[in-house]
């Protein structure tokens, strides 16, 4: 794999946090407001956002999320 794959990029990392937070909030909003027949789609959307949080936590545990190690500890 190219070296670029192993470089820590804080901008990409925080963008992934933003995408996960916005996707989760949107999913919760859709679950609250959508008719019953759209709920499975909203559940899948929200579940995917939660998976994003898991991936971020996993990267922090492996010290590959941020150059700032305090951020990864929190």
From TrEMBL:
InterPro entries: Fatty_acid_desaturase
Transmembrane segments: 12-31, 37-57
Coiled-coil stretches: none
Keywords for this protein: Membrane, Transmembrane, Transmembrane helix
GO terms for MF: oxidoreductase activity
Name of protein: Fatty acid desaturase
Organism lineage string: Eukaryota, Viridiplantae, Streptophyta, Embryophyta, Tracheophyta
